Amino acid sequence: MNAPARFFSTLEPLRYVGRDSRDPFGFRWYDRDQIVLGKRMEDHLRFAVAYWHSFTWPGGDPFGGETFLRPWMHGSDEMDLARAKADVAFDMFRILDVPYFCFHDRDIAPEGKTLKESNANVRAIADIFAKKMESSKVKLLWGTANLFSHRRFMSGASTNPDPDVFAYSASQVKNVMEITHELGGENYVLWGGREGYETLLNTDLKRELDQMGRFLNLVVEHKYKIGFKGTILIEPKPQEPTKHQYDFDVSTVYGLLCRAGLEKEVKVNVEANHATLAGHSFEHEIAMAAALGIFGSIDMNKGDAQSGWDTDQFPTNVEDTALAMYEILRAGGYTTGGTNFDAKIRRQSIDPEDLILAHVAAMDVCAHALLVAADMLKDGALQQAVDDRYAGWNEPQNKAMLQPGTTLASIAARAEAENLDPQPRSGRQERLEALVGSYFR
Amino acid sequence: MNAPARFFSTLEPLRYVGRDSRDPFGFRWYDRDQIVLGKRMEDHLRFAVAYWHSFTWPGGDPFGGETFLRPWMHGSDEMDLARAKADVAFDMFRILDVPYFCFHDRDIAPEGKTLKESNANVRAIADIFAKKMESSKVKLLWGTANLFSHRRFMSGASTNPDPDVFAYSASQVKNVMEITHELGGENYVLWGGREGYETLLNTDLKRELDQMGRFLNLVVEHKYKIGFKGTILIEPKPQEPTKHQYDFDVSTVYGLLCRAGLEKEVKVNVEANHATLAGHSFEHEIAMAAALGIFGSIDMNKGDAQSGWDTDQFPTNVEDTALAMYEILRAGGYTTGGTNFDAKIRRQSIDPEDLILAHVAAMDVCAHALLVAADMLKDGALQQAVDDRYAGWNEPQNKAMLQPGTTLASIAARAEAENLDPQPRSGRQERLEALVGSYFR
Amino acid sequence: MNAPARFFSTLEPLRYVGRDSRDPFGFRWYDRDQIVLGKRMEDHLRFAVAYWHSFTWPGGDPFGGETFLRPWMHGSDEMDLARAKADVAFDMFRILDVPYFCFHDRDIAPEGKTLKESNANVRAIADIFAKKMESSKVKLLWGTANLFSHRRFMSGASTNPDPDVFAYSASQVKNVMEITHELGGENYVLWGGREGYETLLNTDLKRELDQMGRFLNLVVEHKYKIGFKGTILIEPKPQEPTKHQYDFDVSTVYGLLCRAGLEKEVKVNVEANHATLAGHSFEHEIAMAAALGIFGSIDMNKGDAQSGWDTDQFPTNVEDTALAMYEILRAGGYTTGGTNFDAKIRRQSIDPEDLILAHVAAMDVCAHALLVAADMLKDGALQQAVDDRYAGWNEPQNKAMLQPGTTLASIAARAEAENLDPQPRSGRQERLEALVGSYFR
Amino acid sequence: MNAPARFFSTLEPLRYVGRDSRDPFGFRWYDRDQIVLGKRMEDHLRFAVAYWHSFTWPGGDPFGGETFLRPWMHGSDEMDLARAKADVAFDMFRILDVPYFCFHDRDIAPEGKTLKESNANVRAIADIFAKKMESSKVKLLWGTANLFSHRRFMSGASTNPDPDVFAYSASQVKNVMEITHELGGENYVLWGGREGYETLLNTDLKRELDQMGRFLNLVVEHKYKIGFKGTILIEPKPQEPTKHQYDFDVSTVYGLLCRAGLEKEVKVNVEANHATLAGHSFEHEIAMAAALGIFGSIDMNKGDAQSGWDTDQFPTNVEDTALAMYEILRAGGYTTGGTNFDAKIRRQSIDPEDLILAHVAAMDVCAHALLVAADMLKDGALQQAVDDRYAGWNEPQNKAMLQPGTTLASIAARAEAENLDPQPRSGRQERLEALVGSYFR
């Protein structure tokens, strides 16, 4: 293959060029050092590039094969290719000047002849990463194990009817968790791509939920054992590839965690397109995670509003994104989490530049959205409207209804005695939407 | 209005006429005394007629008004009309010879000038019910309070920003719970029609979840206080009327219950059409409820597979219904639950006979499905296939992985030491589907 | 009821206040006299207010009744109420200073005891409109007949199995067409709310398509007979209220028109929410209509991206709206069409101000979107990218392939002789999306 | 690879074993010589096996690779593999004893180094087919060209911005059309997998529609030139792989055909799963095609009712299938068309037997459905109900309304003069659904 430095014709890290520039290779909104709500923009957004879509996906879809013909995908020595891929990847991190990246084990290193060799391959590439991370400022937002691509996982990983797959998965997860820890990763993610089922006819639902709960406990115990301080995250998705996934949405994951006794230990990595496929808005899933105390990180992308599968497109809509950013800010912002672009260029976007430009545009959308969301928060008018709406709950007799001691009977008695006849008050949705519109610039 | 006995031209209770009959006014499959798996068919199915769709809905839809012109919907004395409606309803229960019915408070009695009067109206009609129930064999499967139709509930009931609506709801629920208890109802249901939100912009999600959890606790405490032995049920629905409902699906309700500390106290009433609107099959929701230990009862109907709202049609497909019945049987059948027809005739079905025939056909579909499901269970071949698939988990070292003591590290070490290379085995979906097909008759 | 002037506390027509204003009762973007691409903004956008959602809908939904309690909806003399409603409506037109409005016959006047009286009622109110239109500058964008609300239309209007309904519909349409003509209406719209079916089991599809085609021809013939110079428009919708509507989407309507020989006579009124319910983006439907030569007008609103029914919300997203506006501009802009707000405030938005503010915000969204779309067009970079992509088709041998004379065999022979091996070129979607983003301000 | 005879352990053609058999390798319903409505069951159903899903798909999905490891997919000489695949395929046709098969050019033969070589490869395998077809009784239902898998087609085939792809496609189609003709194929199908677009931003919709219309005309002209007597079919699909496909559904294709002047020349191949993805029931699409005079053939499969992509599952539901079969019978049955299983076993169904059993079960579902549909037709009660519903249209004055000569004004005048007040009659949906249920056995 070609020398990796040649893959991208862009050589210098991209810079903020300002709103009036039309240069597609500069940031119009993402000004990493700009202070927003007392923090650098970069520290708010904590952007990460995902290894899989950008460097491992060849451009296929269910009706067609490879379109990209990446040089690092064609050759005989797979470890050589993996090293070449790493060169390209870190070159892109450098060009985009992003603070983080994310990876699955199978993205970065080929499967070996044995489990041990597979794990060793991952470690070998991770060692290369370690050096590259030292010499650049890019950090690891999270690592994860790919427990869904190989045919051994066709019926699940931890929820597989075959216990050997459970054990195999344990080995793979342990390896990536430890590598993530060693690389200073800030989170470890579990995406249960095939933790679900195709048909109840061949499935023992309860047993599989138990297996999954047990696996999560093993992971959390191992986290403590190795001293990993990062967050364990589950990434909800309602379906695809499986007919039903056990980690359907944020609320479902919360229930799973309660069932496994882990609701204080594990958080969620919320993906925009997974949210919409589950029948929710992206901001809903973030707000719900925050309300349940399990908000962790996000996978930023967007789905096609009329397509019923995971299109994983780069975000383009500032207004939609601002509503998500606002919920993140209301939740206090990220702690260990970040904004990972789990987004892929369209399979027709075959030029190397397409990869760069897609990220630039998406980073700008997020930066613009952050500024809008910060204004929404600073201005406080939206929050005030919410507070006003619930103000009645501050009165002592109303507060009391939410406290132990009051009973249904006592509340009912008062309602009847006072002849309550509550009059509805406008929800004012349109004027609040207009208010949101007024923050755009 | 006309004398109620005249509303239906059918006068005699409908009877089993056998499979070869073409009489639409007889049951071809529902033979209530037939013994299935050691129990009378009637005792398996525990059919209930729903008051609302059958007697209270005038046939309107979002683009058009009343089509049915029921005599009991037009008159000046609303309590008179309510009594006439009760006559027609009990006449239909008698004709269909169903063991149960279900109602909302506002279905059976008009709203009064005050909360107290509204509650009294419900009680007055309930007194009539009590007498009618004595003289017929129909029983109450469940009662519930309508906390969504009146404009005071436009922003929710227990989750309303206005605490007075919370209190008002408490009074209404207390009244219906007590009436349900007095009428010997076997369950009390909560459907949170407007417990959800339209826009996050005016909503405090966490506060509303807290209010809802608190309300559920008040209800459960009241249940014990009054000595009600029935089951408290929540009916999940993903959306409609609200953009997002807090009781989205079975798994979400499980999480809510855990959060409120009520996962041992409250169960779910699973509706077919709500399941499919949530992106699940009906059988999935039943199986999930069973796996989580919260299966209670069902609302039997079907949605239109291509329509995105609650069409609440009568079930027509034996094969689909059999898969649901199979999961109910696998879960041990109903305890306090039953098969409530939360189904409405199409608004063009304006003849009184349409109401009767829709129920007859649906009861036949369910009875037929029960027979198929019972054969599936008795034969055991499906269960055997599932057991075989998970058989590896019976081996001691595999069982051990699910027990405390093993660690991720110990499992991983063994996987590597044994050089595990699990080979996939066919999920055999098509042959299991064919097997299901072979039980149909 | 109250004097209409009192319904809205806003008394003066609303004015452009500029982008930096936070006054919700002023336009931040809609500056009607601003020249955009050589035309006044007002003349580009041709805003219309819809009578039905704003003045006739009481705030009900399938699970709850009236929330708005509008004074003109409660009283004993229906014609008096209709006149009061007209006063409020024209007051709102004045306050918003919109150039157009739209109506259904049943929105503006009550049904009478006979068909003749119903038609006369419409005419009586139309006479009031005529006077009000003279003294204000508001014009009629289009009129239409409501052939779906009353129970007589429950099985369709022109496609009804009962020929008397066809005849009844003819009378109603004739009346409204003539009134529309007399009021100077610029279009006449047909929305086939119940021209469709619920179940094929009771439907003769071909016959109903024939009836519909015939009715359209009658309408077009009548247009010429009365000298109406406006455009006849069909408004596509895929389903709801019916399971399947015959006017599913733009392409389906085109096929219907071809079948009826009317593809040069009738155009479409494209609604955003109907487009998305049909599985299309709004801009797709506009572009398709333009490509097929049948683009007429639009119903501006938005759906909820996760809800499966017609939510008819006011548009809030400038970026989405700009893509639609761009397609309208590319199609040459409106001729007789306009931007009709077929949008309703949420049923919780019960204050009179909500109605005003929703329109103001939506008009601003459209005005902002128009400015962006105009820049996209003026700049030309998007169009250039498209032209470049198809440039190969300008070469003579390629042009020839699209002309009579070439054959499959001759083209194939050349392809083989020249050993064609076409290399894909990037579709550059992300960089074009980024380019679109750069026009926002 | 193994000798093909060894791939399936089943050696003898499968036979009808009757309803009471539990042998999964025998037909319980499909009794090919049984006379139904005067015709052999085989001649009604005209089953075809599809080459692609059964022999060419390796079991991958968007999140995982090959699971099947078919012996003919792994080797160095691609033409050798293609011959081995043909052996297995014809062995399966023999075992299933189906009368037809279908193929894409790329299913049966590998792409060569040049277009000419690719075409020659197809011809070489077709020659093998010709011999195998002679010695067996299997016939070709239809052939088609794969114009979507290779990256050259990533932006479409006939609608590609690059005219060379148009020419390349012409060569490929010409080759497969001629081979189809020589093999005695009864139809030629066009599936426009990538005839659509991903984003309007890079698309000239009108130009692409023109290109597509031109290509269709070239194909039809070539049909006449070579004397092919079969039917040219288009297979509608709403989206996937593209965001929007130009052949969205039956009605859209009808519009396209009208635009190209081909509505008498080209028919449709209706697929169940494509119908449901387009928001229609399968039977709707068949009935619509029949009403428009373009019904040709079907691709039999089913989608998952809760999944938003093409799952292409084998049909399992007799009741759903019977409604489709009923519409086919009402349309007069197939002429050149047939029942092609465009269905794939799940990727976890990795045993050779799974392939056989899936087809057996599906053929039984169709045979059972045919019997039910035939009874529905013979009995005539459904048709009678429809005829009764429209009976009013047989009256002279009502017939006249559909004929030239009457005008909107004359109809309106009569409606008013006669004071028409049409009373709705029950649509009787539930009783008709019950009636359908009564035909099941």
Automatic annotation (TrEMBL), chains A, B, C, D:
<keyword id="KW-0859">Xylose metabolism</keyword>
<feature type="binding site">
    <location>
        <position position="310"/>
    </location>
    <ligand>
        <name>Mg(2+) 2</name>
    </ligand>
</feature>
<dbReference type="GO" id="GO:0005737">
    <property type="term" value="C:cytoplasm"/>
</dbReference>
<dbReference type="InterPro" id="IPR036237">
    <property type="entry name" value="Xyl_isomerase-like_sf"/>
</dbReference>
<keyword id="KW-0119">Carbohydrate metabolism</keyword>
<keyword id="KW-0963">Cytoplasm</keyword>
<feature type="active site">
    <location>
        <position position="107"/>
    </location>
</feature>
<feature type="binding site">
    <location>
        <position position="274"/>
    </location>
    <ligand>
        <name>Mg(2+) 2</name>
    </ligand>
</feature>
<comment type="subunit">
    <text>Homotetramer.</text>
</comment>
<feature type="active site">
    <location>
        <position position="104"/>
    </location>
</feature>
<protein>
    <recommendedName>
        <fullName>Xylose isomerase</fullName>
        <ecNumber>5.3.1.5</ecNumber>
    </recommendedName>
</protein>
<dbReference type="InterPro" id="IPR013452">
    <property type="entry name" value="Xylose_isom_bac"/>
</dbReference>
<dbReference type="GO" id="GO:0000287">
    <property type="term" value="F:magnesium ion binding"/>
</dbReference>
<comment type="similarity">
    <text>Belongs to the xylose isomerase family.</text>
</comment>
<feature type="binding site">
    <location>
        <position position="271"/>
    </location>
    <ligand>
        <name>Mg(2+) 2</name>
    </ligand>
</feature>
<feature type="binding site">
    <location>
        <position position="235"/>
    </location>
    <ligand>
        <name>Mg(2+) 1</name>
    </ligand>
</feature>
<dbReference type="InterPro" id="IPR001998">
    <property type="entry name" value="Xylose_isomerase"/>
</dbReference>
<keyword id="KW-0413">Isomerase</keyword>
<keyword id="KW-0479">Metal-binding</keyword>
<dbReference type="GO" id="GO:0042732">
    <property type="term" value="P:D-xylose metabolic process"/>
</dbReference>
<feature type="binding site">
    <location>
        <position position="271"/>
    </location>
    <ligand>
        <name>Mg(2+) 1</name>
    </ligand>
</feature>
<feature type="binding site">
    <location>
        <position position="312"/>
    </location>
    <ligand>
        <name>Mg(2+) 2</name>
    </ligand>
</feature>
<feature type="binding site">
    <location>
        <position position="342"/>
    </location>
    <ligand>
        <name>Mg(2+) 1</name>
    </ligand>
</feature>
<dbReference type="GO" id="GO:0009045">
    <property type="term" value="F:xylose isomerase activity"/>
</dbReference>
<feature type="binding site">
    <location>
        <position position="299"/>
    </location>
    <ligand>
        <name>Mg(2+) 1</name>
    </ligand>
</feature>
<keyword id="KW-0460">Magnesium</keyword>
